[in-house]
TrEMBL record:
SUPFAM superfamilies the UniProt entry points to: Nqo1 FMN-binding domain-like (SSF142019), Nqo1 middle domain-like (SSF142984), Nqo1C-terminal domain-like (SSF140490)
Name of the protein described by the UniProt record: NADH-quinone oxidoreductase subunit F
Taxon lineage: Bacteria, Pseudomonadati, Pseudomonadota, Gammaproteobacteria, Pseudomonadales
Catalytic reaction list: a quinone + NADH + 5 H(+)(in) = a quinol + NAD(+) + 4 H(+)(out)
Primary role: NDH-1 shuttles electrons from NADH, via FMN and iron-sulfur (Fe-S) centers, to quinones in the respiratory chain.
InterPro entries: NADH-UbQ_OxRdtase_51kDa_CS, NADH-UbQ_OxRdtase_suF, Nuo51_FMN-bd, Nuo51_FMN-bd_sf, Nuop51_4Fe4S-bd, Nuop51_4Fe4S-bd_sf
Protein's UniProt keywords contain NAD: yes
Cofactor requirement: [4Fe-4S] cluster; FMN
Length: 451
């Protein structure tokens, strides 16, 4: 699979005006180090932020640009920044980059960290200036060894150039940045579980409130942003709010561009920087090239394993949070997966739920017990040993593990694809019920998903 922003036949011409995240990428896929990055206008936005802008003006600019989190939740970044305390007497604050990219079928942050490490560092530097944070951590998925090596080298380059450390750019502002590799837990993608892990604790989510902006790392105000989110900041500061908003397609309520991709048995699996508002069909047909010869698209997920399945007829939906919500699921990470007609949905869901069950922190009962229960039922259906009522029990679990029913969003994300798969492909689940099975009382009144 290619980690590239090129389209089919390299027909896309990337430029700073249209591709703020990826225009600096090298054609050979090698990392862009400091000299080349600065030759391509790197750190110009940081110099502008340090010399020409007040800290509150940086926050307001990001808020006005409409930048939203790119990790999947889509919370407005400027609003999140505005939650940090204004009290100048609080001189210990932290900025955390959530680089624990463990969502199955998602690799966008990996590309940015491996090939454009200084873009992330510049984004964090500007953000630290705005938030008055004196120390930052990049919490990195442990398996991303190349990203760790490249980020550590880039940090050392930035230190040597006076772009990190003491008295940055003669401003009197100090900012230290560290790369911290995690131990490999999906739950660390949740910001408070990430904070616990960084502190050396078990990676359980924390109760909110208090939110990290008030009580975060070691009890101090903390802001947590995703890799791609932070990488958008330099372009917004350099080129302004109106330009950034103009990048999105008409009809999109989300601003700027997004790294989007397609995997599965498509002709051209890959990753591209595209404006918010392109349709799923454009992404699937024009960029991914459609299905390989001999395969037919059965369904697709728009943004990682924790998003619901959609049918081919939903490809005309616009790729932004509200556009995907109109067809019944979430935008998620924006990296889609094509499921071909050879795949049995029961087996696919059993595989997914095994992953989510294994990655549960085990803190709350619905998630700890409900996800293994779903795996047990799916395994029985997969083997043709299901009992009458099993599908209704699975739908009951979808309801009991849904939004607002568990301590964090892990379980709701885990069962969203399950509910949508039963909604669209129920006969495949019914085929797994043994002909002589006894009728088992369902868990609860059947829940109609998407009704």
């Amino acid at each position: 699979m290619t980690l590239t922003s090129f389209g089919p036949a390299n027909r896309i011409q990337r430029s700073a005006e249209t591709h703020p995240l990826t225009w600096r990428l090298r054609d050979d896929g090698e990392a862009v180090w400091l000299d080349e990055y600065q030759a391509k206008n790197g750190y110009a936005a940081a110099r502008k932020a340090f010399s020409d802008m007040a800290q509150d003006d940086i926050v307001q600019t990001v808020k006005d640009a409409g930048l939203k989190g790119r990790g999947g939740a889509g919370f407005p970044t400027g609003v999140k920044w505005g939650l940090m305390p204004k009290d100048e007497s609080i001189n210990i604050r932290y900025l955390l980059c959530n680089a624990d990219e463990m969502e199955p079928n998602t690799w966008k942050d990996r590309m940015l960290m491996e090939q454009l490490p200084h873009l992330l560092i510049e984004g964090m530097l500007i953000s630290a200036r705005a938030l008055k944070t004196y120390r930052g951590y990049i919490f990195l998925r442990g398996e991303y060894t190349t990203a760790a090596k490249h980020l550590n080298r880039a940090v050392e380059e930035a230190k040597a150039a006076g772009l990190l450390g003491k008295n940055i750019l003669g401003s009197g502002f100090d900012f230290e940045l560290f790369v911290h590799t995690g131990a490999g837990r999906y739950i660390c993608g949740e910001e408070t579980a990430l904070i616990n892990s960084l502190e050396g604790r078990r990676a359980n989510p924390r109760s909110k409130p208090p939110f990290p902006a008030a009580v975060g790392v070691w009890g101090k105000p903390t802001c947590v942003n995703n890799v791609e989110t932070l990488c958008n900041v330099p372009a917004i500061i350099a080129d302004g709010v109106d330009w950034y908003k103009s990048l999105a397609r008409d009809g999109s309520e989300d601003m700027g561009t997004k790294l989007m991709g397609f995997s599965g048995k498509v002709k051209n699996p890959g990753l591209w920087e595209l404006p918010f508002g392109v349709t799923g069909r454009e992404l699937f047909e024009d960029y991914a090239g459609g299905m390989r010869d001999g395969y037919t698209l059965k369904c697709w997920q728009p943004g990682g394993a924790g998003t619901g399945f959609l049918l081919p007829e939903h490809l005309d939906a616009q790729m932004y949070a509200g556009g995907i919500a109109k067809v019944g699921t979430r935008m998620g990470t924006g990296l889609a997966m094509a499921v071909d007609d050879s795949v049995n949905m029961v087996s696919l869901l059993r595989n997914m739920e095994e992953f989510f069950s294994r990655e549960s922190c085990g803190f709350c009962t619905p998630c700890r017990d409900g996800l293994p229960w779903s795996v047990k039922l799916l395994r029985a259906l997969e083997n043709g040993e299901g009992q009458a009522g099993d599908i209704e029990t699975l739908l009951g679990l979808v309801g009991f593990l849904g939004p607002g029913k568990t301590f964090c969003a892990h379980a709701p994300g885990a069962v969203e694809p399950l509910g949508s798969a039963i909604k669209y492909f129920r006969p495949e689940f019914e085929a797994g019920i043994a002909p002589t099975s006894a009728v088992v009382p369902p868990l609860a009144k059947p829940i109609v998903v998407g009704a």
